[in-house]
């Protein structure tokens, strides 16, 4: 294919990889360049002779440079030589226009420093295509160049030709200068280079350094074994409660309210603030390797001593979490467990449990959170929690969000039977254990969906269901009881319904609530409460039959509605809410929760950064490791100060794999320890101090 030569203004700028004379003036540009709130400056030559022109983006809504080639560019990637002339990173938005109005969009961060090559694949792509939620940091080095790859490109499936490209800086508050050089398209597979060889034999990211990174087995053993050799002296009573305050001792964990403050109370009768950690388990380092072996520099063999750390899985599900995720089945390798074996040999699991138990105590934790290895806690001076995971062939309802799956239909008799089985299994061996704090019911169910109308997603999804849906029939029966005549419903909702049979077909398009028809929101709200009551009542009644002693800790809410939370408060002992915000009061409506008259457990919270290996920082990112500790301390101080909050559980014990966990490709730096089991020392120091202060509250 013949190379196209592109010019910006009066400077001939070649396609990447082509040569061109240094021409400053007088050339006829083969591409049209349009500027909006951008000033074109002089051509500047770098020491190696490369020529780039300065463009100054003025403060405006979207200052932009738009290039339209005389003939469409063809190739697999758009490439542009660019230098950020500012001393800080600049956000650059790229819009690529193809035939018939097709577009691709990307947003990249251009770091300050020397020139780099910006690469935008001419097809929609994201890190999920490569099996992970967050892609590798940019820039990276390739053939002596700094490459900034747009890892997230949205829009058309692909573009065969580029008819125009626009570069803009979204709403700069001050002038921003970029030096732009050769621009065009070329063949190539830069994404494969960007993702290639990014993980070493220990599961660490290969292209960065940080204090806890190791380069050999000896260093690994030394760093892992350098932690506390014995558990810290017990703080408080046997269970970690405050011994200076005495309440009624029942032999079980319970709740009580003193004045306006809720408290957990230990079996010995002392106030207890639950300081917990989620996912304290040895199997969190599993990541799929099959088909993407090229991402790893040194994978162990699947035979011999390493066979215990490899397996075959399949994470393909009809859920939002797995939708569009590449490399989601096949052979996996467990980097975390393999590192534990490198440290302690064949007895690694028991050694890890003992070491982890000492660490949790030394760092001020008194509770083992959800999805954890209970052997660490049971009988070892550490409270723990357990999940009731209801599964079966009962009906379900789609909300459109369905991140972990569709909502269970509590009106289906098969759900009640499945709940009875699940509760019986969950309680069978622990109903007489005083160290059990309580039970959670499921996790992050899709009570709502994102967006302004997301609150009503479960009601709309119920009416959209199949005619035989038990939930749909229950909703219609509720409407019949209220309105009697379907025509009255049609008038109240502003829809052309005159017969109840009109609601029966699958795919019924329920109306969106509006000010003109307030009855819609009223009826949807009543249904949401009815639905949630049915779910939590079924779980609570089964739990009370099988285990009357331990606490029902609620449903680990993520997306939620006021109706679901109120129903849960009616049936549970403690409301559990996963809070991803800088402070508890910014992630939940605490005044409303106070009015519900139940204590609140923050069942998940976390802060992540990208300076310790994994590419993701999670829902609440901070700039660096130091800020993780600062934010932890502020969050815990605010949690302990609120009269309804009785505990907070950190998510999670260890960092997630660089290439993504099996479940959904999540690959964030959440850990107290890394994939090597080495603690993040500065963070641990901040956590220990904050936990000590919280325990004294």
TrEMBL record:
Residues 1-19 form the signal peptide. InterPro entries: GH. The keyword Electron transport does not apply. It comes from the Bacteria. Keywords: Signal. The keyword Amino-acid biosynthesis does not apply. This is Beta-galactosidase. It comes from Frateuria terrea.
